[in-house]
Amino acid sequence: MVVDLHFSFEDRLRNVTINIVEVERPDECAGCGLCAEVCPTGAIEVDERVRLDEDRCVACSFCVQACPRDVFRFYEVSFTELKPKRRPVRVPKADIEVRFIGVDLRTCDRCENRPCIEVCPTGVMREIIEEHRIDLDACHGCLECVKVCPYGSVTVELEVPQLKRRSNPRLNRELCVECNRCHEVCPTGAADNVPDGDPDPERCLGCYNCVAYCPTEALKRPDHRPRPKCTDEVFYIQPDMCIGCRICYDVCPVDAIRIEEITRMPVIMPDLCVRCGLCADACPTSAVDRVPTEEAEREVLRSRISDAFLGILTREMLEAAEEFGSTTRTERDVEEKLSELLERKMSEEMIRRVIEFEVKNVIEELMAEVVSGRDSRGP
User: Looking at the domain 98-158, which fold is it?
Assistant: First the structure.
């Protein structure tokens, strides 16, 4: 299934429920091929035994509804305390009609025990073999006869049943940031309606991949029941590991990452971050990590103060350079050296380290004043 992108991010797990389909009883498959016929993504193949391609399966439940032998099982997976909890879900079976029953009496005569008659719940096989008449309406299409026949003499063809689609996800337009992630993961193009409206009910399979991948939770399952959301941690960019590539800034779907005015380094705003984890996924140096929210708020405040303080220093350097004028060779050299020094430090993204080591005490005092002032005002 296409469900492995953000399932390492704890706070999102608490609000996401996914579905999976498994081939739980492969030995029960009678080879009718209905599952492969109804699968909308071509994830099922039936030859000597049934095979399910998990990468293409979207858990629409069509195979579960159509299978007369209960080969498939449908599960709902939710996350409690970061551990996946799997719960089997009963899916109503589709009404299956029999198109044809055939018995090759030439090979059937070799069989002495007639196990097909014994397992047939409606007596249809007894009528066929002993009375040579067929009542298609009486057959339920259980395929028990096909399964137990030792010579493969019994042939049953089933009609493709009418299947029920699951309800559409709901869209909250106010939360949608038009990141188009739902378009990318939707197997049928039903999400092309987003953000103008809910997914197309004619094409939606109810796989809810769009819900699982939506970074802002603008798309919800129709049966969604809100759970408590983890808010004690948030994503934070570690300055000593950040190389200033700004890839995180480009992928953030809610503009929660700002670029500092002077250092030109990215900073995540804790109050804007929706904890989708796309920035952490995209970072080439693993500089984005989870930290306690309070710690992130303190560090962001520190970096903003540092940026402002550096801005003052930068302006004073430029003003000092301009005061030299350009009347002599020596003065011009001084101005060029100052400009070159500033430009080199900015390009190498070393400003933050200069701040940390050369004006650390000043920053600490400013931080203490700001924090004490905020605490004195109260919540």
Answer: Alpha-Beta Plaits (3.30.70)
